[in-house]
Amino acid sequence: MTTVETSAPPARRPRVPPIVRYLARRLAIAVGLLFGSTLIGFLLVQAVPGDPVAANLSDEALGDPAAVAAFEQRWGLDEPLPVQYLTYLRNLVQGDLGTSQHTGRPVVEDLLDHIPATLEIALPAILLSVLLGIGIGMFAALRHGRAADQAVRIGSLLGLSTPPFWLSLLALYLFFFVLGLSPGGGRLSPEFSPPPSVTGLYPVDALLAGDPMLAWDAVQHAALPVLVLTLVTTATLVRFVRSALLEVLRKDYITAAHAKGLPPRTVLFRHLLRAGLVQIMTMAGLTFASMLAGTVLIESVFAWPGLGNYAYTSASALDRPAILGVTLFVAATYILINLVVDLLYGLADPRIRLS
Amino acid sequence: MPRRFRVPARRRRLLAAVSLAAVVTCVLSACTAGRAGSAARDNTLVVDTSFVYKTLDPGMVYEQTGYLAVHVLYESLLTFEGGDVTEPKPGLAESYEASPDATRFTFTLRENATFSDGTPVTAEDAEFSLNRLVNLKGSTSAYFADLDIRAVDDRTVRVTSRAPNPNVPVLMAMPAASIVNADVVAEHGGRSDESAASQDRAQSYLDQNTAGSGPYVLERNQPGEQLVLTANENYWGDKPGYARVVIRNMEAQNQKLTLTRSSSPEIALDIAGTLLEGLPPSLTVSQQPDTSYFSFVNTDPQVSRVGSRPEFVRAVRAALDYRGLAELFGSRSGPARGLIAPAYPGTLPKQDTLRQDLPLARKLLRDAGLTDPAIEFIYPAITYRGVDLGTIATKVQGDAAKAGITIELRPLPMNSFLEQYRGGKAQMGMTPQALTYPRADSMVRVMSPGGVNAERMNWTEDKASADVLSATDDFLAATTDEQRNAAVVRWQHAMYRDAPYVLLGNNSGTVVSTPEVSGAEYTPAGWIVDLAAVRPAS
Question: Model-level pTM?
Answer without folding.
Answer: 0.84
